[in-house]
Write a structure and sequence with these properties.
Elements lengths: L14 E4 L2 E8 L4 E7 L7 E10 L2 E6 L2 E7 L1 H11 L4 E5 L2 H4 L5 H10 L4 E4 L5 H9 L4 E3 L2 H5 L2
Parallel strand pairs: 4-7, 7-8, 8-9
Antiparallel strand pairs: 1-2, 2-3, 3-4, 4-5, 5-6
């Protein structure tokens, strides 16, 4: 029998692209934070819960189509909550870094990596392979690159 992601009134049927294929995006109910539900890489009927946290001005925000940002909390406290919920992976994206040309905040990334008890992916403001190496050296398992990958493949 197939396991299904629980239905929710906040279900967002938009499709996002990832390096592994196309996955539906829905919201975690309690915190109303976008999460990716994906199948096991081998095609088994299990799924992973991967919350996607958006950082702006050193705090977590909730947006509607990346507009009307609302502050929802401190990233470190949110990581602690997700540690307790035993999510499979965590994605943290600094949505201000690339548009403003700001380098990644290494102190905040290190604090997130130390607190995080699951694989952590960071994205935002990363533009060179050296920055990727430095972020991985801080304890992050994955680094998401967007503009840098397109502008300088």
């Amino acid at each position: 029998m197939k396991k299904r992601a629980p239905s929710s009134p906040d279900k967002d049927l938009s499709i996002i692209l990832s390096g592994w294929g196309i996955m539906p995006k829905i919201f975690l109910f309690e915190l109303n934070i976008p999460a990716i539900f994906s199948k096991d890489p081998l095609g088994f009927d299990s799924f992973s819960i991967i919350p996607c946290l958006l950082l702006s001005k050193k705090g977590l925000i909730k947006t509607v189509k990346f507009s009307e940002p609302k502050y929802i909390g401190d990233p470190i406290n949110t990581v602690r909550i997700f540690n307790e919920k035993k999510v499979d992976e965590l994605i943290v994206c600094d949505i201000d870094a690339t548009p403003k040309g700001v380098a990644p905040n290494h102190k905040m990334i290190r604090n997130l990596a130390v607190e995080c008890r699951m694989p952590l992916c960071y994205g935002g403001g990363v533009s060179t392979p050296e920055e990727v190496e430095e972020i991985v050296g801080l304890g992050v398992e994955k680094v998401a690159v967007g503009n840098a990958a397109v502008l300088n493949p």
